[in-house]
Amino acid sequence: MAHGGDIYRNKVNIDFSVNLNPLPVPGAVREAAIAGLEKASLYPDIKQDRVRNALAALEGVTSGCVYSGSGASEHIMACVRAVAPGKVLLCVPCYSGYLHALRSVEATGLSKQQGCRVSHGIDIREYRLNKANGFRIDRDILDHMTEDIDLMFLTDPWNPTGTNIEDTLLSEILDRALACHICVILDLSFLPMSDKVIGLPPFYEAELINKYDNLFIIKSFTKLFALPGLRMGYVISSPSNITDIICLLPEWNLSSVAAETMIACADVIKNTGHVCDSVSLIRREREYLTGALRQLGYTVYDSDTSFILLETEQDLYYKLLENGILIRDCSDYRGLEQNFYRIAVREHASNEVLIRCLASMP
């Protein structure tokens, strides 16, 4: 299973395999989605003017620095295609969508170094995160960032551990990447639900892309607003990078429903306490889950966001599935062996059900 959320082939009462905000969807966002349906008989704006302006105002950039689309995954793939890397530095374990995007470029035969179609694959160099260090990125990653690398991926907070990258280290990595001409895809899909977001300066992402023209920032409303079926992602980068990305995306890649909803999401983030309320609830429930799981004897790795990684010798996936509870089996993550599972932080009642179920297991 490359992703969570497989409720279509399993009997699931509570889904802990997808990392969505446990807070309810704000009323204004629901109303916008419904309003979007009224425009579904028309083609959406192919230039995305209203959406791009809303996102630009939210992020403190010009509209030429942002473009939206069908989820973060679409933009990850488009960014990889825009870079067309020959050599990639992949920190593992990491989100499986990065490898999927790299394979898609291999399938098209694109290569920046060759400038034409080629038959060989992308050279993927692995930087393995240390289990003893809680699978956190360390400064030794700088030694792996050599000038022959074309592209690397970073995720803040990391997936599947949920830990934020320390600010000073992130700056060092980005500085090193710029000096070595390495393009960086920085996936911040879960940042609005992590502890780090509370202390960030206004227009944090704008500062980054103004400093680093080799940087592609991926963001998503899917997780924060718990609407994965609408597919709402966007990319922030330099205007020239955005132009390249648009050329690699389908026309009308954003539906009318998603467009209206994204505008409302941006407004909610700017003008309400939804992010702070989300982080507060997630922190409280994450601490409850972490403490309860450790008390039951599970090895739980530290997290700063809406999911946690645990390790156990038990086959939890099928045992919990028998009780209608779905979690994420992480055995298909590069860099993780068997017996690792990722569990989303949900509302308290569901979290209690999970703990009671685990406590009753022999």
Structure description:
The protein is an alpha/beta fold and 362 residues long. The protein folds into 2 domains: 14-24 and 274-359, Aspartate Aminotransferase, domain 1, CATH 3.90.1150.10; 27-271, Aspartate Aminotransferase, domain 2 (3-Layer(aba) Sandwich), CATH 3.40.640. The protein is built from 12 helices and 13 strands. Strands 2-8-7-6-5-3-4 form a 7-stranded mixed β-sheet, with helices on both faces. Strand 6 (183-187), helix 7 and strand 7 (215-220) form a beta-alpha-beta unit. Helix 3 crosses helix 4 and helix 10 (274-295) runs parallel beside helix 12. The radius of gyration is 20 Å and the shape is globular.
The rounded Rg comes to 20 Å
Number of distinct beta strands: 13
Strand content: 5-15%
Gross CATH architecture of the largest domain: 3-Layer(aba) Sandwich
What class do helices, strands and sheet pairing give? alpha/beta
Helical segment tally? 12
The N- and C-terminal alpha carbons lie at a distance of 26 Å
Low-confidence stretches: 112-119
The helix content, as a percent range, equals 25-40%
Mean of pLDDT? 93
Quick one: CATH superfamily of the largest domain? Type I PLP-dependent aspartate aminotransferase-like (Major domain)
- The CATH topology of the largest domain is Aspartate Aminotransferase, domain 2
Strand line-up in the sheet with most strands: 2-8-7-6-5-3-4
Total domains, how many? 2
Reading the helices and strands in chain order gives: EHHEHEHEHEHEHEEHHHEEHEEEH
